[in-house]
Design a protein that fits this description.
The chain is mainly alpha-helical. Helix content is 71%, strand content 3%. Helix 3 (55-73) packs antiparallel against helix 4 and helix 5 packs antiparallel against helix 6. The radius of gyration is 17 Å and the shape is globular.
């Protein structure tokens, strides 16, 4: 695949994934009882995209999709924390998955560890913006959100792994050489 075509795939997937994160964050959310945040399933798309398509797409989707959702929801004060939290979540998820890629099932633990980094960043944001009480009340909801996102991402990964997409991360070097775009079945 030439560089121009690869760049087009990167940009296209990143834009679509960002839109999916925005939709699953903005339209499918439940405000926390204390009003200091909201529960959403956008983390599932962030985790899935960072593993299935790569860290660039995962970070781009997580940062821009969540940033736009915070902006549209009126949670502007969270935007700096969201940029760090969602970007870190995507990078940690990809890195752990890459390190553990040769294991059959243990590699999927990355989907459940990476949201904990998001929770840590948001804990700091709740503490700085609202106080320690809000931080302790809101963080369990963030943990639930992240872990449910990991479960949904696992389901997405297993489902999409059976598709023959022209662009995705392939961790197996031998399969990567055999599985070029010209050898794949048409969509």
């Amino acid at each position: 695949m030439n560089k121009t075509k690869s760049l087009i795939f990167h940009i296209s997937y990143s834009a679509v994934l960002s839109a999916l994160v925005f939709v699953t964050t903005f339209f499918v959310h439940i405000t926390y009882p204390n009003g200091a945040g909201y529960f959403n399933i956008g983390d599932a798309i962030i985790i899935f995209s960072s593993i299935f398509f790569g860290p660039i797409e995962g970070v781009f989707a997580g940062v821009f999709g969540s940033l736009l959702a915070d902006l549209a929801s009126g949670y502007v004060q969270f935007i700096p924390f969201t940029i760090v939290a969602k970007g870190l979540e995507a990078v940690v998820c990809f890195t752990l998955f890459y390190i553990l890629r040769k294991t059959k099932y243990i590699k999927f633990i990355s989907m459940f560890i990476s949201p904990l980094f998001m929770v840590l960043i948001y804990f700091v944001s709740y503490y700085l913006l609202f106080g320690i009480e809000y931080a302790f009340v809101s963080s369990p909801y963030d943990i639930l959100q992240g872990e449910l996102g990991g479960i949904f991402a696992l389901i997405l990964y297993i489902s999409f792994n059976k598709l023959h997409l022209p662009y995705r991360i392939n961790f197996d070097v031998k399969k990567r050489q055999e599985n070029t775009v010209s050898n794949q079945k048409p969509l």
